[in-house]
């Protein structure tokens, strides 16, 4: 089952058969063109013949626009798109232009009538109102159920076709090697086998329905410290053995026709311009015939971030020469930044033509020239959406992981009279990143109320917010200044092109409030560089009449704060980012002269002028309410969650805000407490795990999530989700993946084990399963042979349930260090209480091969340890297979 992209060696990229088919297609086109004035419009001709006819008809400007895709750009209408376009993102129609109206312009009002591709985000449901919101991708991975993934993907694809979407910027097949990364929720976890299988199941259904899929982000989108888009420094072996596997699986087995590159750099080269990635590996070795797109705005990153290009046009030239085909931007006006490189010869014409041919081929394959309009051909009935909602509920049930249930509290027994449903995620049905609004999302609170009906009283209190709101940016309404003698709301900012506030400012402007995030650019690009500048804000601060406040500053680099001429905060020497409050509290109803000075010697600055209006007693009110409800109840369900997402990486694995305290205080009432974790990544549970009677990881469970969690709580469904990543005990263990190579000495720390809190593949059930009678069809095979491995699985518990059977492998002696264990296959099996079945796997070259010293795949002779169990650490059966001896 494990995909092996590196099985294609550099020499295996040649495809004689494909070249022969192309030659025959071109020959057929030559014959047909004599009878057709514009052969590219003839649907009876082969696609390659139509491409060959249309390509030379395009002007240089028209070729550029076929390689320019936009997430936006329609606010000013369609008339300016006289040269055509690659396509637009669904929802970018600023003035309400429909999909068919967009296509009609390009088909009827442009010179060559080339239709556009409407694309969208569809990670776990199409991002638009009315579309079904399924569990987040990490939750779908936790099902370990590829059959279910096929069903979910087909449902999403049908909704995409109904909306006119013909390309999705999904799935994310990056490996979640560090759970601090804010985008773990978008992935299928840390393992290349699981990720590859889920990715293949997803893309297959879309491609079957004529929708181009776009696995992303080539190649690794998380770097040191779990930070998004951080630079990557990985050797070719590591890339081929792990990071590239899921991409190759989606392309070779799933048929993906597009790939998106990453924002970051690989060994010093931006991924958008990496010839090794985009040309050598992807196109030459894999024979990828689709098109490569950048992430939104990523091409220009070579100039403004990586500083490897002299300008946007130079960045475009480097990217196209490096194998990129399509530049993805967010505004029409961005085109003028990149167009010169397509017209002045810096990009060889053959490179441009090859990229345009890939785009045109996709448009012909999609049938857009024949059927560019949506109409009602793919319309979905209400019954279809109802079935999709029920599928979303089933997927959510399958995704839920039971982490703890030491005393068997779950499933809940009948007879409860009072349930307290608490926590910031109890009444909020969050859907996760890259989500539409969903169709009537059901919260956990609502799901429990529906399940118990009038038989039990269900009360609710938030307890605390997910984030501590103590420090709030001072609003504009409480700030004032004068500019040119006229009063203005906000503060007057004087900007200097030095770090000493010296001389005359290069810019003076009124800023509504001080809330700056200049991490990627200058605060005033027309006047200042992105580093080495200073700012002085002056004006007046009015303190609200409803109480005294403490004023402070949150930021990095250096700052000083003055009130009525007195220095109250001094952090002028740049050290680190920090939050400081002045020692004095401001008097209610008064007005103060305010001066805030800031300097940024190296750029990447963040700064907020904040105040604290809360009182300690007020902050405890919510916690006291939750504790009181819990103390009076038969059961407490505490729903807590993460704050994460794109460009929202975490330094800590603790729950944010005061949620850990909420759990401890509720559990300390003595009322049995079930903790429900909402989020897409790992949570450190050590501070309260032993206090909880049960712990469920429910991810972002989709629009029917509240009902699905209630199904599991009350035993209407068995929790059989499994962890798609390792959960550390502490951040100091990171990065932590189960399939690492053997260490040079030991795994442990002086003050902590090297093992995770919960291992990859872990999850509990309401029933028990017995593994027995491991059978190898043969114990010795040739290097190019395969063998069947089977065993008996029996449900020996009191309830029907699912087991996720996992096959791991270890090479006992190899020419290069191999993982201590690696997932090679898995099956989700449903058994009634007392039922038994035979589970069968096939092990062959795809599972046994490794990269030899020359980085070519080889099955080396020797012994291989086969391990079958319920997680990477819960191995129930073990056997030895001898290969090629």
What topology emerges from the helices and strands here?
Blueprint: H1 16-33, H2 47-54, H3 60-66, E1 68-70, E2 87-89, H4 99-108, E3 117-120, H5 137-142, H6 146-163, E4 167-168, H7 192-208, E5 212-213, E6 216-218, E7 222-223, E8 227-228, H8 236-243, H9 245-252, E9 258-261, E10 265-266, E11 269-270, H10 275-285, E12 291-293, H11 301-304, H12 312-321, E13 327-329, H13 335-338, H14 340-343, H15 349-365, H16 382-399, E14 401-404, E15 418-422, H17 444-452, E16 457-461, E17 472-473, E18 479-483, E19 486-489, E20 491-496, E21 507-511, E22 515-518, E23 533-542, E24 549-555, E25 558-563, E26 566-571, E27 578-586, E28 591-600, E29 605-612, H18 616-632, E30 635-641, H19 659-667, E31 673-678, E32 694-697, H20 705-713, E33 769-776, E34 780-781, E35 787-795, E36 801-811, E37 822-831, E38 836-843, H21 845-848, E39 850-851, E40 857-858, E41 862-869, E42 875-883
Parallel strand pairs: 1-2, 1-13, 2-3, 3-4, 4-5, 6-9, 9-12, 15-16, 15-30, 30-31, 31-32, 34-42
Antiparallel strand pairs: 7-8, 10-11, 14-32, 17-29, 18-19, 18-23, 20-21, 20-23, 22-29, 23-28, 24-27, 24-29, 25-26, 25-28, 33-35, 35-38, 36-37, 36-41, 39-40, 41-42
What are the main properties of this structure?
eight-stranded antiparallel β-sheet, alpha/beta, six-stranded parallel β-sheet
In short:
This protein is 24% helix and 25% strand. The chain has 885 residues and is α/β, with parallel strands linked by helices. α17 (444-452) crosses α20.
